[in-house]
Design goal:
With 58 residues, this protein is an all-alpha fold. 71% of the residues lie in helices and 0% in strands. The relative contact order is 0.15.
């Protein structure tokens, strides 16, 4: 954010950004099975991010 000249996020903006991240990683986890991907690299990456995002949300 700093690199783009954006000021630090306010409290509600931080929560909203984390919810957007949660949505993205959930889509990535779910679509691995839904689309029948045989390579689990995307799932593995997204699953680790899901754990991180959930921890940030408390």
């Amino acid at each position: 954010m700093h690199g783009y000249g954006h000021p630090p996020l306010a409290g509600t903006e931080t929560v909203r950004r984390r919810l957007y991240c949660l949505h993205l990683v959930l889509v990535m986890v779910i679509e691995t099975s839904y689309r029948g991907h045989t390579d689990t690299a995307q799932y593995d990456w997204a699953r680790r991010r899901l754990t991180e995002v959930m921890a940030l949300l408390g």
